[in-house]
Write a structure and sequence with these properties.
Chain lengths: 273, 451, 337
Amino acid sequence: MTDVAERLDLARAAASPPRVALELRDVRKRFGKTEIIRGATLAVNAGERVAIIGPNGAGKSTLFNLVSGRFAPSSGEILLDGQRIDGLPPHRINRQGLARSFQVSNLFTRLSVFENLRCAVLWSLGYRYAFWRFLANLRDANERAEHLLAMLQLERRRDVLAMNLTYAEQRALEIGLTIAGGAQVILLDEPTAGMSKSETRRFVQLIRDVTVGKTLLTVEHDMGVVFGLADRIAVLVYGEVIAFDTPEAVRADPRVQEAYLGSVLAQAQAGEA
Amino acid sequence: MTGARTPDAAPARHEAGRQPPGGAATYHFRPYNVGRWAVWGGYGLLLLLAPLVFSSSLSQTLLSQMGIAIIACLAYNMLLGQGGMLSFGHAVYSGLGAFLAIHALDHVGAGTLHLPVSLLPLAGGAAGLAFAALFGFVTTRKSGTTFAMITLGIGELVYSMSLMLPEFFGGEAGVSSNRVVPPATLGVTFGPQVQVYYLIAAYCFVCTGLMFAFTRTPLGRMLNAVRDNPERVAFIGYDTQRVRWFAFMISGLFMGVAGGLAAINFELATAEMVGAQRSGAYLLFTYLGGSTAFFGPIIGGVLMVLATVVLSELTKAWLLYLGLAFMLMVMYAPAGVAGLVLANLRLAAFGKLRPLLPGYLALLLAGAVAFVGASLMVEMLYHLQLNQALGPMMKYGGVTLDAKGPAAWMVALLLFVAGGLAFERVRRRFVLGWDAAQADIERELRRRDAA
Amino acid sequence: MDQTVINILNGLSSGLLLFMLSSGLTLIFSMMGVLNFAHAGFYMLGAYVGYASSRVIGFWPALAVAPVVVGLLGAVFERTCLRRVHRYGHVPELLVTFGLSYLILEVVQVVWGRAPVAFEPPAVLAQPAFTLVQSAASGLSVVLGHADAATCAHAACTTFPATRAFMMLVALLMLLALWLLLRHTRVGLVIQAALTHPEMAEALGHNVPRVFMLVFGAGCALAGLAGVIGGSTFLTEPAMAAAVGPILFVVVVVGGTGSLVGAFVGALLIGLLQTVPLTVDKSLVDAASAVGWHVSSDSVAYPLLKLTLAQVAPILPYLLLVLILIFRPRGLFGTRE
């Protein structure tokens, strides 16, 4: 490409607005009389990596549950690529291109690692509820599962039952199940929970590798991970998004410091040095 | 969650041609996967030769019923073991299949329906499929214990209706027919029992094969996923309820086939075939046989016929024994007979079985003594209560004794207590040996993984 | 008119008996997640133990003793069998109670035989509670106990048995006691806590396994109490468990699993549904001819349409079950799966 053409391309990209992959508009959720999510508004761009942080009880898991369809919001709208998904059952949302992982590994316990991954690719490859074809003959499903196996570095544990894996291996499989279907918007709920420093580092690299080109929304407590992985950070306090900006801006935001960070930030800065 | 669970059904089966790094494949010969051919060939041979080995007319009746029971239990386990769905009303589908088949048989006999008798079970299957689609749509909306209660309710609904509609269900006497419909093809009239047996055996083999194949399909695998983690299934794009409903229908299809075969075999269909007793029996025996392994229900089907036909003749207390055996199985061996077999095969594969054999023998002996003592007391009780007109003398295992006399009771009590104490002592020793063997196996597996 | 009132009262009393049973079942299910398949068996045990003890110590002491005995048996079962399978999950728990139901049936038959036993209510209950007198002259009136023969010669007299009235009384008292226990006592609070947060309740020093044993025993005791009353009012025989078992589950599903209020409303509804239609001897064919549409006996649906409401009464609860499942799957007052 010529220099001029490159610069034209860049200019064009800069001129057109980024595509919004996931948007929340004044989402509220009430359980009984308690309002957990009190008007959350967020717009995540395609290809962006966003981390959601906030004190315990802020409603991060509830927010994830709302977006992924486990609960329906009491009011407000959730849009995926411009389409309303609030109120849809989880499997419909998944088919539209959104997948999530769980804080507590949610695997198919009595199936092997390979079977777990193969199940996760079946729908996206169009196999539906087929009972007239053998799994062994589905070349694309098997190849894709093998490819995932390699990406997750779990080849040596291929035939081990999911319930017999180590904790870190289960977390890796958890991620694998999430991305297997080729969803474009990935929600990760505390992916590195319970991991040591070295495991976390490896895992973050894994997350980066498997979510190339996808939109990532992750809940995290580990500030090192957050500042290293995220393009933008959303701060959730008492069910409201009080800040949504680049890591540097969030770090400097007085509201955030007052509500949440303070000492935690200092810790992270010390850890980063 | 380690060791204590018995291993999953098929041992790590690799697709033909793969070899795990460093370790030897444990159950296969490569490259033709002789194991698979041996198993299925053996099964077919067994079905073929059984009536020649057991040739008395009682045996042939039993074998015929076993073939039917095997299909029914395998179909039932599609829901229980593979799908994690506990159904208390599954006899509805085999029963309705039987009724449709018997009416069809009537029409075939009268000449208004031109269908060979050998294809009538398919009519039963169609009925099973249709009703499973209808009732299943409603019942699969829920899962777990609620699903179980609903299936119970629908079972009762159908049974009550069967008593109200004598036109279709024949009232108290049921609907009977004649399976011998001329002309005979190749000399086969289905008059003699052995001919009916071979029809049943053929269906049994084919149905077993089809249901096994099902476990290797996308729907079959997703059914397992739904059993293990229904929530996660939705998050990989599948509608959990749809998966369950389709599996329910396929299970209903095979139940209907079993019902159709029963209609031909007994030349009778009665309301009891859709009743709660029958449904309970399917659950009981499928679980006893082993719901976690594919071949468990085959054992269950055999046990079902042996218990309901043979055991019930030997003793009036058979339901008591059954209930006790079932409870003990749930508490101590939840994977059933198949699970026990697989656990011991696993031990044998690692060479850990032989040292445990003396312990097994001791357990068996002590257990037998305790059992004789307990069952003696049970039989005497039953005799005194239910056979009052016959007086206090009764036979137990060929020995005549006085059920009212203190001597018999003393002996029984002694046997029970002595056997029980011995069993408990042997059991404690045995469990230590068992746990040690399991730990050794775990260590060996880890070693192989790391190599 | 008098017939209708008595019918409704019959339906209500059956419903209240069902409530006594379903409340125990709901309690156990809510607190422990265990569906006690043998609950109807404990009901039967209550009737038989009540019968056996009433012959030795009289009906009224038996009314107190039998539930305690049955409750103890339930607690023993929980401690020996149920606790062992608790860690395997809810399905094995259900299965072990399923096995127990076989066991209870066999034990009852071997101890008391296969024929019904004569469990009579005491003299004071063996008479009518009141009589409804419907006469052309003075309309509807109520007479306590028997109405004399002279009055009944010229009017329609229908009696309402004291046993049924007593059944209603006990059920309502039981409801009150349950409510008071759960809302206003320490034990009730602990039980409510153990319901939703068993680990936390245990961490606070409460012996959760013992609470479970207590709850299971209490649920069985309630079933036993219902058994004494039901057995003396109706028939005490080995088939009584199978007669009431499935209906019980319908009540729980219709009312909504895990809800005592649901169990109450569901039980009353099912009780009425089982009893009131028994008096209607009309079928859909009759209804059709009332509007001038004649259904011939050759038409395909005739066997179905000619069934009178009275004949169809046994399946009405199950039809309600199916309808509830289609239109309101969580039951009328359901809160938990």
